[in-house]
Amino acid sequence: MVQWLERGTAADPGRVHTEGRIARLVVEEQRSAVAELLGTRPRQLVFTSGGTEAVHSAVWGSWRARPAAPMAMAEVEHSSVRDAVSRLTEVRVLPVDSSGRIAVDALSDVLEDGARHAMLPSLVHCQWANHEVGTLQPVREVVELCRAHGVGVHVDACAAAGHVPLSLDELDADLVSVSAHKFGGPAGIGALVLRRGLRLEPLMVGGEQERARRGGLENVAAIVGFGATATALLGDGGLAAEQERARRLTERLAQIALAVEGVHLLGDQRRRLPHILCLAVDGVEAEPVLLGLDQAGIAAHSGSSCASESLAPSPVLAAMGVDAERSLRLSVGWSSTEADVDAFAVAFGPVVEALRGLRYS
Length: 361
Known about the structure:
Elements: H1 2-5, H2 18-38, E1 45-48, H3 51-65, E2 71-74, H4 79-86, E3 91-94, H5 104-116, E4 123-125, H6 139-149, E5 152-156, H7 168-171, E6 175-179, E7 190-194, H8 209-212, H9 220-234, H10 238-258, E8 263-266, E9 276-281, H11 286-295, H12 315-320, E10 327-331, H13 338-360
Parallel strand pairs: 2-3, 2-4, 4-5, 5-6
Antiparallel strand pairs: 1-7, 6-7, 8-9, 9-10
Helix pairs in contact: 2-9, 3-4, 5-6, 10-13, 11-13
């Protein structure tokens, strides 16, 4: 990325001059690397400004194709999905179990009811894995069910990409959104993957970039960073090694947390993302725990990564039927180390016990 940033404004990959052709070659090389990581063809991948734009593009294009139709999703979807859908059309809410997993039978009922009334959803949303508790969703069953009814599926894979294998061509979902910064790439770059042959009206217009699927000058430096991250995960060890390292760290975090009385885990601990752990802490609210950990140099979070400014109770945990005020989300990434876990081990128990002492004093 630095090499491209040092050039100042990168050449427009859409131009035919030498600089433009060089930029085009670089963009397409990185597109191929990202597509290989995701298990899809390069031509199906549209670069966006991030996961949020990819989500909005999927929602907008599907709504424009059938504006009178509802969309179906669970309340555990990311806020970018929930907000994009609810401002455009009616929502058919899908229930989830206590681990946050979508009830496939309930989706079947929604689709059967839609078929009876000639009002099938224009799109069903199913995240690959939950961004807050890490639970893996039944994406393959959802895609197969929707395909049988002729209904499109959007899979939000932002939390999962770069952490678990995706194999998108095998999945055959209509639309899949991903974000580079979720697995070590730069902020401000993501992608929307479209099923082969699918055409949607673009959200971003005003140019013919990305094969007329997303207007606007490509962010060459960020695309280079996206591709470099994908290439690193395609190397020796790669994704499998990263999965194993992340799971080892979160399993140790879980052991440390569970050693404190009144702490338990949320979400499915067997079928989960390797890098996310969600705790429930009895007797104290999440915010003071976060502040106490922050004073010890530990950055953690409560609830969704997009709820930090509102400090609103997590809709994910509310949908799961658990106390949304007392959750603590721990996540690890490519830069996390055993020393970080050691620091959590030193701080967590004393922070929780000190706060409980204040409550009962």
